[in-house]
From TrEMBL:
InterPro entries: Papain-like_cys_pep_sf, Peptidase_C19_UCH, Ub_carboxyl-term_hydrolase, USP, USP39, Znf_RING/FYVE/PHD, Znf_UBP
Biased segments, Polar residues type: 1-10
Protein name according to UniProt: Cysteine proteinase
Chain positions covered by the region annotation Disordered: 1-70
Record lineage: Eukaryota, Fungi, Dikarya, Ascomycota, Saccharomycotina
Source species of the chain: Lipomyces tetrasporus
Length: 515
């Protein structure tokens, strides 16, 4: 059968040009591969070594060998294959690992299907994917350079700038200054509205404990601004991944109205030695404690010097502890407890203030069982008034705050373990979300010291159909630009009135000091 000759119109069409370019590239690749095969066979005969071409150096050499291809592609239209890019299939929240080799070195994303592949040399997985699947546009997830494969020339079209921004959002000081002042509403690719900073986070398995903490810290303005503006190149991976995640939470040009913490989760799981996992729920406060301390060290903080990192400058305060020994006197027929006349004073730093709930009544009637006990926040804060005493392991202690930080973190202690059984105190803590006066608990304070609530992490116990108790964590966040509150549980976002914030079981609270 004879081949039909192409008409003049077909010869000049973009589709025809693509076919011609692809055929020329394949012929060039075949001839070059034959030369490479002959050379490699000679090397094998000499030393018997066989390489798989997976090393970074091999990829770099192959990519340098593409200079001739780049020169031959100079006459190729700059927008060739760009119409095949499918933004709906792109998701850059996952860890940057090759989908074939699981390597994290020199990873590219296919902009047609969204899969990750290593390298772009002629023996790379990205190259084979371009030939096998007819997908041609790839972006380097580190350098953000875009290439067309198998021709291997760089695309410098501004039409792909939106994709580069989604991979690595960046902000100016002016952008950051407007985050809490201007009410911004953005739209995703489906034209669905979302509010930057108040977007859902995927609960991949059981990682809601991490979601609520990251959401809370992303609304601590100094920390958020620091993570969005600083260049963390060369810093530990933990800081870099948190920075990217916070910037994605506040991205005004996102392709979708939610983010996934997958990259951060994988790294947290690795460096915590599986203490915090994707597949197993953990205590949000345990994670917050570990997370802030590791961020402190990652930012160059010291284990001994106070306020030696940006983390401690935001959250660290000081509390004075007065301790008095309690001894027993059984000389008489009655056992007596005697307080030592000597009182020891120590000033210790803190990043969290632990608040103890009153114990739940042991015996309740039928009516009392349906009544949830309540306690005002000021009542449990009285622990730090300097006069309320606590009996702990033979000590009588009194606490008084000597220095308050810009941001206060309250840990309302709901969980206690006795005889390997975890007990939960469901007492509701009532509070006003604005103008919390901390002066009664500060040594030497003569004027009001006011704090406003920024984030409130809540706990709820639910039971599965099998009768197992399950913990559910949510976070309530304030939108300062609109003076509104939102409640976020993973991907679910809803408005909530400030008057009913306390109806949930508050577990962790972050308060901001008024300037």
């Amino acid at each position: 059968m004879s081949k039909r000759s192409a008409s003049p119109d077909e010869q000049g069409s973009p589709a025809r040009k693509r076919v011609q370019i692809r055929d020329e590239a394949e012929e060039r690749v075949i001839s070059e591969n034959l030369d490479v095969s002959d050379k490699s066979n000679g090397k094998k005969a000499e030393n018997g070594d066989v390489t798989d071409g997976s090393d970074q150096d091999d990829y770099e050499e192959e990519e340098e060998g593409h200079l001739a291809a780049d020169e031959s592609a100079a006459a190729v239209p700059a927008d060739l294959y760009l119409e095949t890019v499918d933004r709906m299939r792109l998701d850059f929240d996952f860890e940057k690992l090759c989908s074939v080799s699981l390597s994290n070195v020199n990873v590219y994303a296919c902009l047609v299907c969204g899969k990750y592949f290593q390298g772009r040399g002629r023996s790379s997985h990205a190259y084979f994917h371009s030939v096998d699947e007819d997908h041609h546009v790839f972006i380097n997830l580190q350098t953000l350079k875009v290439y067309v494969l198998p021709e291997s020339y760089e695309v410098k079209s501004s039409a792909l700038d939106d994709i580069k921004y989604v991979v690595n959002p960046h902000f100016t000081k002016k952008d950051v200054a407007h985050l809490d002042k201007m009410a911004i509403e953005s739209f995703d690719l489906n034209r669905k509205p979302y509010r930057p900073g108040f977007v859902g986070m995927n609960n991949i398995k059981q990682n809601d404990y991490l979601n609520v903490i990251v959401q809370s810290l992303a609304h601590v303005a100094p920390l958020r601004n620091f993570l969005m503006l600083e260049n963390f190149e060369g810093k530990p991976e933990l800081v870099q991944r948190l920075s990217v995640l916070v910037r994605k939470l506040w991205n005004t040009r996102a392709f979708k109205g939610h983010v996934s913490p997958h990259e951060l989760l994988q790294h947290v799981s690795a460096i915590s030695r599986k203490r915090f996992r994707i597949t197993e729920q953990a205590d949000p406060f345990d994670f917050l404690n570990w997370f802030l301390n590791n961020l402190h060290l990652s930012l160059g903080g010291s284990k001994t010097r106070l306020k030696s990192s940006f983390i401690q400058k935001i959250f660290q305060g000081k509390v004075r502890i007065e301790s008095q020994k309690i001894t027993t006197d059984d000389a008489s027929d009655r056992l007596r407890f005697v307080a030592d006349t000597q009182i020891q004073q120590n000033e210790v730093p803190f990043m969290f203030l632990a608040l103890d709930l009153p114990p739940a009544p042991l015996f309740q009637g039928d009516i009392d069982k349906n009544i949830i006990p309540q306690v005002p926040l000021q009542t449990i804060l009285s622990k730090y008034d300097g006069s309320t005493t606590q009996e702990l392991a033979g000590d009588r202690r009194r606490y008084k705050i000597s220095e308050l930080p810009p941001y206060l973190i309250f840990h309302i202690k709901r969980f206690t373990k006795t005889n390997l059984i975890e007990e939960i105190n469901h007492t509701v803590v009532t509070f006003q979300s604005i103008a919390l006066d901390m002066s009664p608990y500060v040594d030497g304070a003569t004027e009001p010291i006011l704090y406003d609530l920024v984030a409130n992490v809540t706990h709820e116990s639910v039971f599965t159909p099998q009768g197992e108790e399950k913990h559910v964590y949510r976070v309530q966040l304030k939108d300062k630009s609109r003076d509104e509150w939102f409640q976020i549980q993973d991907l679910y976002i809803e408005n909530i009135r400030r008057e009913i914030l306390f109806l949930n079981e508050s577990y962790i609270q972050i308060w901001e000091r008024r300037r």
